[in-house]
Amino acid sequence: MSAVTDAVLESRRLAEPRLEATYAIVFFDAIRVKIRNEGMVNNRRFTWRLGCVARATKKSRTVDRADRRREVWLRVMTELRNRGTQDILIAVVDGLKGFPER
């Protein structure tokens, strides 16, 4: 089972495009949405990122479901690094829980 899981994760990773090495500005935020599933209404968190490069010609937008508030931003930053981003000049964040203060 783990071999199948690893193969699926690897194929997903290969399908994700490389990101720019440097973004001038990246906006990070999260939203809570009520979703009805099988007759029950639950709150689901989603994170989003919008990155703008210095020449303002290309943007990277991503929305992900976030199950665990404390770990989500570490996962987001790790994903950005793994997909090729090396530097963010300005990160715009508005007091998100689990996001580093500095």
What does this protein structure show overall?
It is a single chain. The protein has 102 residues and is an alpha+beta fold. It has one domain (19-92). Helices cover 27% and strands 42% of the residues. It is built from 2 helices and 4 strands. The protein has helices spanning 2-15, 69-82, and strands spanning 22-37, 40-52, 59-66, 87-92. A 4-stranded mixed beta sheet has the order 3-2-1-4, with no helix packed on it. The longest helix is centred in the first third of the chain and has 14 residues, at 2-15. The N and C termini lie far apart (40 Å).
Largest sheet: 4 strands, mixed
**Count of alpha and pi helical runs:** 2
Q: How many structural domains can be distinguished in the coordinates?
A: 1
Q: How widely separated are the two ends? A: 40 Å
Helix % is: 25-40%
Mean pLDDT: 76
